[in-house]
């Protein structure tokens, strides 16, 4: 098996496949300069666009705008270049062949960004944000990914890691020099700082915004059969996704429609009507409906004209349907998909709910399960440090807590710990 070498020069089509005016091929690696020279029969000023003939084996393959992007201040940190070609598939194929011929190989998925991380151009959290930026479909996803790519979340984690480093430095000093005259406040300050960090990180874990924005949130429409659930899904989403009939029990499986409200991706789910049934397929639909209700961020619980309001959980919003037939009781939102009455109010109510779910604490939110797991691990070690009676054990837990944070950004750095220890105390031994 041939394994891809991380030192080899790589290339990839950076623009999408399909009919387009321009295709960009990106190249990165130590041999980029030599390869470019061969292809354009000359050299270029860095970061300046120039129109050049791309020549291989004495044949002109295309006229392209070429950018020479030498490291270390390039995306990957390596030497690289870009060819802005005409997007014909035959041109792209010939240029790819030429690059291979000259010693480059096709890049693996994410390899440019992986190299950027390895060269210290960005950390892991920023690299994840680049992937999110490319995938962003809504305004809130774009903003969040851009902030994260600019280092907002990394800065938060680095500042916690830095504070932990100082706590650890103090702890190490208490362990190593128990007889020296370290002021008693050192121990108190150390405990207070561990408590403060524990509090801040635990708060961060309760913040769901990042994951909600990235993955979108779920709004489930639930209620008895025939209450008007499918009609509401169709009205809100603007097209006939669900079948509407007067026959009860028509919606067997959940129907999902993706929707954007307030710049946030919303998955709107219509579920099977909740009722007692002998029908096996309908019963399965109801089981799935209850599952969706449990997972939902917001549940719109529809109530028909001849139904009583049952007790609702805090995520559930009661909505009276078919108000063209009879009015909604006071203090309950009423809608009619027949006349459109109340739908604007319902949209506004959803917008408010979404805004309050997205309301944050001012710190950047975590966006992935990996971040949550890392912070959780860090918090567990802080809790153990809080309880540890032996200073050595507390030191070890602090170290593990700091490492859990370091793994998140990809910086686990023992040298800087040593610097913090010796720098702060001027021990001179
Ligand atoms: P579901 O079983 O809860 O999904 O309900 P449907 O959306 O399929 O609607 C059941 C029946 O109620 C259909 O005949 C709809 O035309 C009717 N319906 C739905 N919404 C309204 C409404 O706002 N007013 C009136 N009068 N009828 C409605």
Automatic annotation (TrEMBL):
(6S)-5-formyl-5,6,7,8-tetrahydrofolate binds at residues 26, 82, 121, 429. Its cofactor is K(+). Its EC number is 3.6.-.-. InterPro entries: G_TrmE (IPR031168), GTP-bd (IPR006073), GTP-bd_TrmE_N (IPR018948), GTPase_MnmE (IPR004520), MnmE_dom2 (IPR027368), MnmE_helical (IPR025867), P-loop_NTPase (IPR027417), Small_GTP-bd (IPR005225). It is found in: Cytoplasm. The keyword Isomerase does not apply. Its main location: cytoplasm. This is tRNA modification GTPase MnmE. One of its GO terms (molecular function) is metal ion binding. Keywords: Cytoplasm, GTP-binding, Hydrolase, Magnesium, Metal-binding, Nucleotide-binding, Potassium, tRNA processing. The keyword RNA-binding does not apply.
């Amino acid at each position: 098996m041939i394994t891809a070498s991380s030192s080899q020069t790589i290339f990839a089509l950076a623009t999408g496949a399909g009919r387009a005016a321009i295709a960009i091929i990106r190249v990165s690696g130590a041999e980029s300069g030599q390869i470019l020279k061969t292809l354009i029969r000359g050299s270029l000023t860095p970061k300046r666009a120039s129109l050049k003939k791309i020549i291989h084996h004495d044949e002109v393959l295309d006229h392209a705008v070429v950018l020479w992007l030498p490291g270390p201040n390039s995306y990957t940190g390596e030497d690289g270049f870009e060819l802005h070609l005409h997007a014909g598939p035959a041109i792209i194929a010939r240029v790819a062949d030429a690059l291979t011929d000259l010693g480059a190989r096709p890049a693996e998925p994410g390899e440019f960004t992986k190299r950027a991380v390895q060269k210290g151009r960005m950390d892991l959290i920023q690299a994840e944000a680049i992937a999110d930026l490319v995938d962003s479909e809504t305004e809130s996803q774009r903003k969040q990914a851009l902030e994260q790519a600019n280092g907002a979340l990394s800065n938060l984690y680095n500042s916690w890691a830095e504070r932990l480093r100082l706590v650890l430095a103090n702890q190490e000093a208490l362990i190593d020099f128990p007889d020296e005259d370290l002021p008693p406040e050192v121990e108190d300050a150390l405990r207070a700082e561990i408590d403060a960090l524990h509090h801040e990180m635990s708060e961060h874990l309760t913040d769901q915004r990042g994951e909600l924005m990235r993955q979108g949130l779920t709004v489930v429409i639930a209620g008895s059969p025939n209450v008007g659930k499918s009609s509401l899904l169709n009205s809100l989403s603007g097209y006939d996704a669900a079948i509407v009939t007067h026959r009860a029990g028509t919606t067997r499986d959940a129907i999902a429609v993706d929707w954007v409200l307030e710049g946030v991706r919303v998955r709107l789910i219509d579920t099977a009507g909740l009722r007692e049934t002998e029908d096996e397929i309908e019963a399965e639909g109801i089981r799935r409906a209850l599952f969706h209700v449990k997972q939902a961020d917001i549940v719109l619980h529809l109530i028909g004209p001849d139904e009583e309001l049952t007790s609702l959980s805090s995520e559930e919003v009661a909505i009276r349907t078919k108000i063209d037939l009879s009015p909604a009781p006071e203090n309950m939102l009423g809608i009619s998909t027949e006349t459109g009455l109340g739908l604007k109010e319902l949209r506004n109510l959803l917008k408010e709910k979404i805004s309050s779910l997205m309301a944050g604490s001012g710190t950047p939110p975590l966006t992935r399960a990996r971040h949550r797991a890392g912070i959780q691990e860090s918090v567990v070690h802080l809790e153990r440090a809080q309880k540890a009676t032996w200073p050595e054990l507390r030191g070890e837990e602090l170290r593990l807590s700091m490492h859990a944070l370091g793994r998140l950004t990809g910086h686990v750095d023992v040298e800087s710990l040593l610097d913090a220890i010796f720098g702060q105390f001027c021990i001179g031994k």
